[in-house]
Every structure is written in structure tokens, then in C-alpha cells.
């Protein structure tokens, strides 16, 4: 079974109350419900977590890598600052999709640069909670393809 760890960084626990004009009215629990629904239809196992602490996110990325799971990460502001998260993604070899609720490229210039994008398979941003579902679908496809490539040929 394909397993995906959906990791959420700082301030995402405030979702629904935090700058609703930017991030909408859905809470993180609402987003988790949507993710679990989608995962059920894909047949994917989900671990869903949030922390305001960089080291927790590092531990969880390492854990996903050690378990052969994929990662969908909304690293919040750590996206733009954290070499530790970048190194965790690169070092754990967990296939990772970076996601954001908002279109970070349409916002302040400090949000235009991601330290984790270069070590991620790809980036999805700007679709609100749908970014999570698109991220899950993307990592699922990547992991299915990689598993097929890894299978020995029958010819
Ligand atoms: C965010 C965008 C980041 O720039 C910001 O720091 C966040 C949320 C998003 O989901 O749009 O905390 O990751």
C-alpha cells in the first residue's frame, strides 16, 4: 500500500481564523477530512500532522523516508527559510510535493523563493484546500510510476 504523510508547518493550526481573506474559512480539520476522503478513493494510507516547530517537521520527514512513504508538505513560512527542511527532504529520499493554499507568487517577494522546491518532485500552489488534494494525487501517481519502474521486467 502506498502511504503518504501530509505535513503542515507553522500557523496552519490557525486555519479558518487566520487571515481568512488569504487562506479561507476552512479549518485544518476540514482539510484533513477532505484529504482522508480523497485518500480513501485512491487507496492511499494517510498520516496527517501539524507542528509549529521546525525540528518536529524534520523528524517527520525522516520518518516518512524511513517508512518508504511519500510526503505532501505545506511548510508554511519555513518554506522560505529552512535549510533544515530542505536537507531532511534531500537526505530522507522521501518523494515530496510542496504545496501552498495561496498563490505565493502573487504575494510578497519574500514568499517567491522556496528552499524546498529544488528537492521536491514538484510544487502546487494557489488552489486553497484543493492544493492538498492535487498534491496527494500527484504524489500518488509519482509513487505508482516509480514502483512500476522498479519492478523487474517479465520479458
Ligand atoms: C502558505 C504560504 C506561506 O508563505 C505562508 O508563510 C504560510 C502559508 C500557504 O499555504 O499559502 O504560512 O504556505
Describe the structure.
The protein has a single domain (2-150), classed as Dehydroquinase, class II (Rossmann fold, 3-Layer(aba) Sandwich), CATH 3.40.50. It contains five helices and five strands, in the order βααβαβαββα. The chain has helices at 20-23, 28-42, 54-67, 83-92, 130-150; strands at residues 3-8, 45-50, 70-74, 96-100, 122-125. It has a five-stranded parallel sheet, with helices on both faces. The relative contact order is 0.19. The model has no long low-confidence stretch (mean pLDDT 96). It binds 1,3,4-trihydroxy-5-OXO-cyclohexanecarboxylic acid. 1,3,4-trihydroxy-5-OXO-cyclohexanecarboxylic acid binds at residues 11, 74, 76-77, 79, 100-102, 104, 111.
Key attributes of the depicted protein:
single chain; 5 helices; binds 1,3,4-trihydroxy-5-OXO-cyclohexanecarboxylic acid; alpha/beta; five-stranded parallel sheet; Rossmann fold; 41% helix; 5 strands; 155 residues
Elements, N to C (H/E) = EHHEHEHEEH
- What is the CATH C level class, in words? Alpha Beta
Task: Please report which band the strand proportion falls in: under 5%, 5-15%, 15-25%, 25-35%, 35-45% or over 45%.
Answer: 15-25%
Give a count of the beta strands, DSSP E runs of length 2 or more: 5
Sequence of strands across the biggest β-sheet: 2-1-3-4-5
Describe the main β-sheet briefly. 5 strands, parallel
The CATH superfamily is known as: Dehydroquinase, class II
- Note the quaternary state here: single chain
Helix content: 40-55%
Amino acid at each position: 500500500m502506498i502511504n503518504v504523510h501530509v505535513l503542515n508547518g507553522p500557523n496552519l493550526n490557525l486555519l479558518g481564523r487566520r487571515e481568512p481573506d488569504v487562506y479561507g474559512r476552512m479549518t485544518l480539520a476540514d482539510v484533513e477530512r477532505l484529504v482522508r476522503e480523497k485518500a480513501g478513493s485512491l487507496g492511499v494510507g494517510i498520516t496527517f500532522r501539524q507542528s509549529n516547530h521546525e525540528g518536529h517537521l524534520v523528524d517527520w520527514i525522516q520518518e516518512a523516508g524511513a517508512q518508504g512513504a511519500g510526503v505532501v508538505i505545506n511548510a508554511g513560512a519555513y518554506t522560505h527559510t529552512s535549510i533544515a527542511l530542505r536537507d531532511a527532504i534531500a537526505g530522507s529520499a522521501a518523494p515530496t510535493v510542496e504545496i501552498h493554499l495561496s498563490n505565493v507568487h502573487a504575494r510578497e517577494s519574500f514568499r517567491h523563493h522556496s528552499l524546498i522546491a529544488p528537492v521536491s518532485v514538484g510544487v502546487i500552489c494557489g488552489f486553497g484546500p484543493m492544493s492538498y488534494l492535487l498534491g496527494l494525487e500527484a504524489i500518488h501517481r509519482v509513487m505508482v510510476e516509480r514502483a512500476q519502474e522498479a519492478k523487474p521486467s517479465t520479458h
